[in-house]
Write a structure and sequence with these properties.
Elements (H helix, E strand, L loop, with lengths): L1 E5 L2 H18 L4 E4 L6 H12 L9 E4 L1 E3 L10 H8 L11 E2 L8 H14 L5 E4 L21 E4 L2 H7 L11 E4 L2 H5 L3 E6 L5 H9 L17 E6 L13
Parallel strand pairs: 1-10, 2-3, 2-6, 3-5, 6-9, 9-10
Antiparallel strand pairs: 4-8, 7-8
Helix pairs in contact: 1-2
The chain binds 2-phosphoglycolic acid.
């Protein structure tokens, strides 16, 4: 896993947008897997700006999102459907027929997960998977302990994740469960790009990069990936080499 440290969040976000734009330049019908959260907002902003400037088109690309809360309708203001529409899909020339976000309100969530996994397979797999990282090392909603051979499935969120995300929900109560793309599905992506910004990610980053590869630290799986990059700002990189991971 190659780590690159950028002087700040903007530089990191611009570099991440550059990776996506370059890939689409080479292959306009690339298949992307995308995250939500605070971290990728800058990347989405850069890509939307590049699109408005005529520098990149998403018309032939296919998009899969990493996860969604179980029980949220696609029009719920805290849903990742709404997030993606507001911050990215609604701002570019994406073809709605090639945008996939797990349906948190599907009557049969297990069947929805199978449908989602099948759609990824039918698209030919993921070319570039962009990830954030949780303070506990999660990727997507694959919390510590997620099996490396897991597929898209219903998961229970850790209390720490629910606490971090509570502010998005009424009465500060995040859903207990979610649908997430699995660890094996992420691993099979041709390229993985993990973004981390801020001191509150420094420890998770150091443990993932410098600790053992272990299911207790989901992001550590990426060390086995042949083409995974870690884009960090200086704050997120601040525990590297400090021995915190040992
Ligand atoms: P964040 O979330 O970008 O909002 O910090 C990342 C994550 O939990 O995966």
């Amino acid at each position: 896993m190659r780590a690159r440290v950028f002087p700040g969040y903007e530089a990191m976000s611009a570099a991440a947008a550059g990776v996506i734009a370059r890939r689409l330049g080479e292959d306009p019908s690339a298949v992307l897997m995308l995250p939500t959260g605070t971290t990728p907002l800058g990347m989405y902003r850069h890509l939307s700006t590049m699109h408005r400037a005529g520098e990149v088109s998403f018309e032939r690309a296919t998009f899969f999102n990493l996860d969604e809360y179980l029980g949220l309708r696609p029009d719920h203001r805290a849903s990742y459907h709404v997030y993606m529409k507001e911050h990215f899909y609604g701002l570019i020339d994406a073809d709605p027929a090639r945008i996939f976000v797990p349906d948190g309100a599907a009557p049969d969530p297990e069947a929805e997960c199978e449908r989602y996994e099948a759609a990824i397979r039918e698209a030919g797999g993921i070319d570039v998977c962009v990830l954030g990282i949780g303070r506990n090392g999660h990727i997507g909603f694959n919390e510590p302990g997620a099996p490396f051979d897991s597929r898209t499935r219903v998961v229970t969120l850790s209390e720490s994740t629910r606490l971090v995300n509570a502010g998005d929900f009424e009465a500060n109560r995040a859903p207990q469960r979610a649908l997430t793309v699995g660890m094996a599905t992420i691993f099979e992506s041709k390229e993985v790009l993990l973004l981390a910004s801020g001191t509150n990610k420094a420890r998770a980053v150091a443990v993932a990069v410098e600790g053992d590869v272990s299911e207790s630290v989901p992001a550590s799986m990426l060390k086995r990936h042949p083409n995974a990059g870690l884009f960090l700002d200086e704050d997120a990189a601040s525990d590297l080499g400090s021995g915190v991971a040992g």
